[in-house]
Amino acid sequence: xxxxxxxxxxxxxxxxxxxxxxxxxxxxxxxxxxxxxxxxxxxxxxxxxxxxxxxxxxxxxxxxxxxxxxxxxxxxxxxxxxxxxxxxxxxxxxxxxxxxxxxxxxxxxxxxxxxxxxxxxxxxxxxxxxxxxxxxxxxxxxxxxxxxxxxxxxxxxxxxxxxxxxxxxxxxxxxxxxxxxxxxxxxxxxxxxxxxxxxxxxxxxxxxxxxxxx
Length: 214
Known about the structure:
214 residues, single chain
């Protein structure tokens, strides 16, 4: 059977909306770890219909049955006879996965660990160097394509050109001195945080020893 704690679900929704951390966050559906949809799915989906008009049910294949984490999205449609037996049917709908730049960096890092048994212990400097190398490689690819377009080797693409122009315009115009000052300021802030962390750790240790004596 299934134990649907609707009270906890409603509290979670209210808590998410009332925290004020992200006012644009709202409920659009629910997910389950598995690709099987059964009679319990209908019960849970009925609860989320009270939270949003057309909830989306997302299924994630965590067992990797097709050698990948397959993701499907569904909505429901009512079926049955009026004033008689009624039910719903889950209908697949298309979806797209959009990740932030921070998510993409993390996912790319974990993807590079496939086939390795040990997780490399990279410090911040090594990660920055690796990211800069990837960025330089991508810039070289873009520059190669632009040169081919200018030489007539490949036809021009207006949409691609517009996107490249938006990328160029989004780059801040900073000189070397400004970047150096920003890095130094960030380093000073980081050292201050580490120093405060050390002081807090020492204060907690002293408080623990005093409590033991008393």
